[in-house]
Write a structure and sequence with these properties.
There is one protein chain. By secondary structure, the protein is of the alpha+beta class. The protein has one domain: K Homology domain, type 1 (Ribosomal Protein S8, Chain: A, domain 1), CATH 3.30.1370.10. The chain has 3 helices and 3 strands; from the N terminus they run E-H-H-E-E-H. Strands 1-3-2 form a 3-stranded antiparallel β-sheet, covered by helices on one side. Helix 1 packs antiparallel against helix 3. The longest helix is centred in the C-terminal third of the chain and has 31 residues. The radius of gyration is 17 Å and the shape is flat. The chain starts with a strand and ends in a 6-residue tail after the last helix. It comes from Cuscuta europaea (European dodder). InterPro entries: KH_dom_type_1_sf, PRP5/DDX46/KHDC4_KH, RIK/BLOM7. This is ATP-dependent RNA helicase PRP5/DDX46/KHDC4 KH domain-containing protein. GO terms for molecular function: RNA binding.
Length: 104
Amino acid sequence: MPEHYEAELEINDFPQNACGKVTHKETLDPISEWTGAAITTRGYYIPPEKVPGPGDRKLYLFIEGPTEQSVKRAKTELKRVLEDINMQVTSLAGSAQLGRYSVV
């Protein structure tokens, strides 16, 4: 019987544009092809101020593959994509404040 490996990566608390990017087919397909792991979006977006109800799961990615290494590589790459987008959002927010006009 072939072995089967699984992992989960919770993405609910990342900025919505990061969640959107990492759940798009254009992002997931190349990672799946490169690693050999299947990636599925599961759960629901739950705002920070709301407590999940019984049976509700926050938004996450379910990763499954034929080897432990394929699952680890996919999870690592997904984390990298999320962190890159998160850093872009943070740097844009910081630079937006620097560009404000001042009245003399």
